[in-house]
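Thread: quick sanity check before group meeting

JM: Hey all, I'm pulling together slides for Thursday and realized we never actually wrote out the predicted structure for the chain we discussed last week. Dropping the sequence here so it's in one place. If anyone has concerns about the input, flag it before I start.
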Amino acid sequence: MSNRKFWIVSSTILLVAVVTIFAPGITQEINHGSIVCKNNCFQSIQVSSIENLQEIIGKDAQIEKVAEGFKFIEGPVWHPKGFLLFSDIPENTIYQWQPNQEVKIFRNPSGNANGNTLDLEGRLITGEHSNRRVSRTEKDGKIVTIVDEYNGKRLNSPNDLVVKSDGSIYFTDPPYGIKSEQEELGFYGVYRIAPDGKLTLLIDDFVRPNGIALSPDETKLYVNDSEKGHIRIFDIKSDGTLENGRIFAELKDPNKRGVPDGMKVDLQGNIYSTGPGGVWVFSASGKLLGIIAVPEKVANLAWGNNDYKTLYLTASKSLYRINLKVTGVKPFHGSQKSVGANGHSPVQVRFDRLKTLI
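JM (edit): ok, ran it. Output follows.
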């Protein structure tokens, strides 16, 4: 990696305003607008009928490529010590990127790691394809298995993960990364790992469950189905299980590359999902606010930097970022896990903040 370039290149952003759907079959009305980069500068946003978009992406927003030369990168997560971790699945490696430094190898082999997140203690939680497990990296560097089987049968290929403020881990388990003859379960599920380690199957009717995210107040769980091309939303019950599953939004465009894959949420409750052509941004009510076009197919994304207003994008062979005007939901870790501002829990602080924005 010593000869890997670190560079920044401005690239075009396309913002497409769409009044989206809450369920299949409802007509979509589309208004087009764009930011076009010419001579290393960006024009003003020329769009209409876009609620709250200016609160998300400023008129001078730019896409920056910060590293390149990978095979297929995924699973970005910002570490509170000031660096980004992300997986290169074919390279069997987790990389570490830090501003103004060359990319470093964080772990190799990685078990063909895919998704990454942090637990309440700031330890790395990873979905590993070839090891078919969810792992945890201890503070001393030791890697331990959290779960690798359900009802005595091996998991398929744990993909993406999110940690709730009570310490429970939600993750998706599609068959990506294994051959059909290796499958033992016969379904592709969404699971919850309780703080005591108990594994519960929550949903088993996905075709290809993939990206996963919690609403800021942790009352909703969003799950992408890459094959179906949509996001499903579930209500989270007091025991951590799910109910009332329904279609939240569809992300389909036959003329563009990409599928619903990675997904993140900001403090306003907006949902950012990879999809055809780039990153699709939805309001909490399910309205498509716009699409951030990216030169390469985006697989996943993560909030980063000290203020969590920078969105990092793992896009095929390159790592990109864009500075936004909103604050993303960060993983709970360290002192966040018990008490937040004014003695409130972090999730209550998030919820109070969300109420002021609605």
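AS: nice. Residues 346-357 form the longest helix (12 residues). Confidence is low (pLDDT under 50) at residues 2-50, 335-358.
JM: adding both to the slides.
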